[in-house]
């Protein structure tokens, strides 16, 4: 039996066509019409980050030229040969409709793309019906509010995007449930979860999803076809096994008690790193989800795999970790980490930005999807952002501009750090009568009492700094010293945070003067 919500053809993926029209399409039409689509319009960025990985895995299956496919390991082992194949695929400007139909209708077993299929619902584990039970053996679902990111769960859940309660759960349309299914698998929390009884024990804790707390970066073309082809990562032979490469909807269910199957390229590395298992409960007509089971999928150690879409930053212990998403951090502040090669000591750019076609670089932007979370249960904010067409500045294509951008960003960060410190000093001087207000007196700050000025100043500074940054990238400003405009932006932000000078008392006036002097001192201490 089929559950009746077939993701191949049901309209569940919001897109914007090149004509400007917004529509929803199924997977089949997304690929057949990818060259007519300008952008994805998924309103849940963590779902979009996961969906792009799923689409990239399918792209590797359906992007062909003659008898060669982008997921052909024999071709991929020769980098130049694989890049030439990708060039030929891009030259075709669209996916072959017959190849798309063959993949969805013949190469993948029947029912695997059905969200509510009884035997193998898409990206779900039907065994949870009998394994997620209470001590008496009755079904023990997690609740639909647990599925939908942004809804509160439990007694103390925070309200982010609507008022929902566990005592009166609101069903979610099946299309939207598919978004949140993907988001849960990639960004789900660690810690306590619905218990799952496989052996005699009911284990109720799990690990965080593979993308939790992270931000993903994709080269973004003028149409979705280009973006998807460029999203297929190159072969990473040093980390991956040589077994059959299968995505979850292509192969058998994994045994949650056995060691994980070795990672393979590209499907398994993009779609088989989940730490959660989910099962959706549909309404009788199959158009809504009324409940869900969400639990752990494995406790086996995760394979160390280099995600192709993440920046890596060096930790204090010398190892690298994915750059964490920060809802207050604008995308331009990551630009130098995307443009510069991996030969730096403390940052590694996403592998997907290596060896992009030079002919396309002037047309390519960067799309970022992030989710600001902690490692366990707290979700703060998700975001999506897109740069202008900046990838022509990749270091291997325009070394001078890439390093200019790095220098501009470094200056902005230096000014931002000084502004943060200066505003805290100013608050201390203005409010603590025990502090010597003279210009050169030392001020001891209390980390627990930073005052409101630093946050207010930085909130105003970074948008101003972004405006200055993009000005500095313009050809007519390439010779400008970058430190000066960032200091002007910081001085303006500081004044706005402290308030009008005409209404300030003498102590506030001295505090303002001291903070401004600390910022201006950067000009003499730094050649800029």
Explain what you see.
This protein is an alpha+beta fold and 528 residues long. The protein contains 15 helices and 16 strands. β1 (13-17) and β2 (22-25) form a beta hairpin. α2 (45-62) packs across α8. The N and C termini lie far apart (68 Å). The model is unreliable at 154-161 (pLDDT under 50).
TL;DR of this structure?
The chain is α+β, with helices and mostly antiparallel strands. Helix content is 34%, strand content 15%.
The main pleated sheet reads as: 3 strands, antiparallel
Mean pLDDT equals 91
Low-confidence parts lasting 5 or more residues at pLDDT below 50? Answer: 154-161
**Cα separation of the termini:** 68 Å
Characterize the overall form. globular
The class by helix and strand makeup works out as: alpha+beta
Q: Taking Cα atoms only, what radius of gyration do you get, to the nearest Å?
A: 26 Å
Helix content estimate: 25-40%
Strand content: 5-15%
Q: What is the count of helical runs?
A: 15
Strand tally, please? 16
Question: How would you summarize the topology of this molecule?
Answer:
Blueprint: E1 13-17, E2 22-25, H1 27-32, E3 37-40, H2 45-62, E4 64-65, E5 68-69, H3 73-76, H4 79-92, H5 97-107, H6 128-131, H7 144-147, E6 172-173, H8 174-187, E7 191-197, E8 202-206, E9 215-220, H9 224-231, H10 267-271, E10 276-282, E11 288-296, E12 312-314, E13 320-322, H11 335-339, E14 347-348, E15 365-373, E16 379-386, H12 399-431, H13 453-472, H14 483-498, H15 506-525
Antiparallel strand pairs: 1-2, 1-3, 4-5, 6-11, 7-8, 9-15, 10-11, 12-13, 12-14, 15-16
Helix pairs in contact: 2-8, 12-13, 12-14, 12-15, 13-14, 14-15
């Amino acid at each position: 039996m089929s559950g009746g919500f077939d993701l191949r053809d049901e309209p569940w993926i919001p897109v914007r066509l090149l004509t400007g029209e917004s529509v929803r399409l199924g997977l089949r039409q997304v690929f057949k019409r990818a060259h007519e689509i300008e952008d994805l319009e998924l309103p849940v960025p963590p779902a979009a980050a996961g969906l792009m990985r799923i689409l990239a895995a399918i792209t590797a299956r359906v992007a062909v030229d003659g008898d060669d496919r982008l997921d052909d390991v024999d071709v991929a082992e020769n980098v130049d040969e694989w890049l030439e194949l990708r060039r030929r695929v891009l030259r075709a400007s669209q996916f072959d409709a017959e190849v798309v139909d063959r993949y969805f209708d013949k190469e993948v077993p029947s029912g695997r793309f059905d969200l509510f299929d009884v035997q193998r619902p898409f990206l779900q584990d039907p065994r949870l019906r009998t394994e997620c039970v209470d001590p008496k053996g009755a079904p023990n679902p997690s609740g639909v509010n647990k599925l939908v990111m942004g809804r509160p769960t439990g007694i103390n859940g925070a309200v982010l995007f609507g008022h929902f309660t566990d005592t009166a759960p609101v069903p979610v349309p099946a299309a939207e449930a598919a978004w949140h299914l993907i988001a849960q698998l990639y960004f789900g929390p660690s810690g306590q979860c619905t218990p799952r009884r496989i052996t005699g024990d009911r284990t109720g804790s799990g690990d965080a999803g593979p993308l939790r707390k992270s931000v993903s970066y994709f080269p973004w073309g003028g149409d979705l076809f280009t973006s998807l082809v460029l999203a297929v990562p190159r072969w990473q032979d040093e980390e991956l096994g040589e077994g059959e490469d299968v995505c979850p909807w292509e192969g058998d269910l994994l045994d949650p008690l056995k060691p994980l199957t070795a990672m393979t390229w590209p499907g398994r590395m993009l779609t088989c790193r989940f730490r959660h298992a989910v099962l959706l409960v549909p309404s009788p007509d199959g158009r809504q989800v009324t409940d869900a089971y969400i639990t752990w999928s494995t406790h086996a150690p995760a394979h160390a795999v280099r995600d192709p879409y993440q920046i890596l930053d060096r930790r204090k212990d010398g190892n690298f970790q994915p750059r964490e998403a920060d809802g207050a951090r604008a995308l331009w502040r990551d630009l130098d980490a995307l443009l510069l090669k991996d030969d730096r000591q403390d940052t590694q750019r996403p592998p997907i930005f290596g060896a992009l076609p030079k002919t396309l670089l002037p047309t390519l932007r960067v799309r970022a999807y992030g989710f600001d979370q902690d490692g366990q249960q707290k979700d703060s904010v998700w975001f999506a952002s897109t740069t202008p067409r900046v990838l022509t500045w990749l270091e291997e294509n325009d070394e001078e501009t890439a390093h200019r951008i790095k220098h501009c960003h470094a200056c902005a960060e230096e000014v931002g750090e000084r502004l943060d410190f200066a505003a805290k000093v100013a608050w201390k001087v203005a409010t603590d009568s025990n502090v010597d207000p003279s210009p050169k007196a030392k001020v001891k700050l209390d980390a627990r009492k930073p005052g409101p000025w630093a946050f207010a100043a930085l909130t105003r500074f970074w948008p101003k700094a972004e405006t200055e940054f993009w000005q500095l990238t313009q050809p007519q400003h390439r010779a400008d010293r970058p430190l000066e405009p960032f200091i002007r932006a910081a001085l303006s932000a500081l004044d706005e945070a402290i308030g009008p000078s005409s209404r300030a008392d003498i102590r506030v006036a001295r505090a303002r003067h001291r903070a401004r002097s600390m910022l201006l001192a950067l000009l003499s201490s730094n050649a800029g």
